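B., you asked whether I could sanity-check this one before it goes into the benchmark set. Here's the sequence:
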Amino acid sequence: MAIGTTAGTTGTAETGARTRAFLRVSVVLQTVAVLFQAATAGLLLSTSYGETLHGVGARVMYGASMLYLLAAVLAWRPGGGSPRPVLYASGFLVLASAQVVLGIAHVPSVHVPLGVVIFGLSVAVLVRMPAARSVRRTAGAGARPASARSERGERGGAV
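And here's what the prediction gave me:
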């Protein structure tokens, strides 16, 4: 029975590590998409194809915000992580929605500063996010759980 329990615990730890890595990748994608939007905003003012690039980038950025929310939910529920990233991702999705509406309505006096805020917050989340670590490094490659040792009558300390 301890073997099944240990395997389930390891599976959960691996799932948690994978979902945290997915969460980090989704934040990186969102940050890059927002940076791309800043670059295409400059092109929007100076070239004929800037509007097309900015429109495509807006869709990618909005999709990246939805992906971030999905990754945050997966890291929280099945991954066993904190619910805090879900709150952050929901906030980003609300800001991205407002950004899209303001862009379509051609309100640059609010659209541009909001884009700067979104980029700053995205970078802040990315910087504060812990780096993805290997399960083996954090759990110890050869360590056995205390429950497995106690069932066989072994002690945890030196004998």
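One thing to flag: Residues 2-46 form the longest helix (45 residues). Otherwise nothing jumped out at me.
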